[in-house]
Amino acid sequence: MTTARYRPNRELAMDPLVSCKLCLGEFPLEQMTTITQCQCVFCTLCLKQYVELLIKEGLETAISCPDSACPKRGHLQENEIECMVATEVMQRYKKLQFEREVLLDPCRTWCPSSTCQAVCQLKETDSPALPQLVQCAVCALEFCSACKASWHPGQTCPENILPITSFLPGENSSFYKNEEDDAPIKRCPKCKVYIERDEGCAQMMCKNCKHAFCWYCLESLDVSWMLETLLMFTES
């Protein structure tokens, strides 16, 4: 935790300290940041760590005020985020925003191949929830828009089927062993799309459905886990 700087009473009267709601420390106003939308005030270091952690773990694309009791439920604007994080972190944030836009767009979906995952265009129909044939323009894989399995005309989507039943060149079934903790590729426990882990920590975020989970045990990781991690940062 950053140590608050205490000063003589005379100086305090001229420039009072402000309390941070995250670390509970008191700091001069120049070390604080005010969120424009809700006017909540936090020390710049805490707010920066909070924003970077959310972006790193991919838990939010609209970064909310860290005060759970914020009366206006404010969010940080993109220019506010850009002022406090490094360029590569901002690029990841914009990437997460794009992925969420695709997820919410009924006319777009991700190619389920772990070696492709391009954005595929769907046909505009009156019933967007109905399955349709999708052919990836990048790898030519044909799959069902609903279950991400190979296209199955005239049949309902099976509940327990691998999203891809035909592998791309260089892929084979030995890559997809969910029972192995160190398997390089696993399926998202929620939407079943393949995910490849190259390196890094065990906390994973599915780009298809935004489900956060542990790579090893596949258990869900919610926002409370993120807040616990942030608390560890502020106390260190």
Keywords:
about 240 residues, two-stranded antiparallel sheet, 5 helices, Herpes Virus-1
Averaged pLDDT: 75
Structural Rg = 23 Å
- For the record, what is the CATH homologous superfamily label of the largest domain? Zinc/RING finger domain, C3HC4 (zinc finger)
H/E element string? Answer: HEEEEHHHEEEEEEEEH
Counting DSSP H or I runs of 4 or more residues, the number of helices is 5
| Helical/strand content category | alpha+beta
Number of domains: 3
SSE inventory with pairings:
Layout: H1 9-14, E1 18-19, E2 26-27, E3 32-34, E4 41-43, H2 44-57, H3 78-84, H4 87-104, E5 108-110, E6 119-121, E7 133-135, E8 142-144, E9 185-187, E10 194-196, E11 203-205, E12 212-214, H5 223-235
Antiparallel strand pairs: 1-2, 3-4, 5-6, 7-8, 9-10, 11-12
Helix pairs in contact: 2-5
Structure description:
The longest helix has 18 residues. The strands form six sheets. The chain has a two-stranded antiparallel ribbon with strand order 1-2. Helix 2 runs antiparallel to helix 5. A hairpin with a 6-residue loop joins strand 11 and strand 12. It folds into three domains: 83 residues, Zinc/RING finger domain, C3HC4 (zinc finger) (Herpes Virus-1, 2-Layer Sandwich), CATH 3.30.40.10; 47 residues, no CATH class; 44 residues, no CATH class. The protein is an alpha+beta fold and 236 residues long.
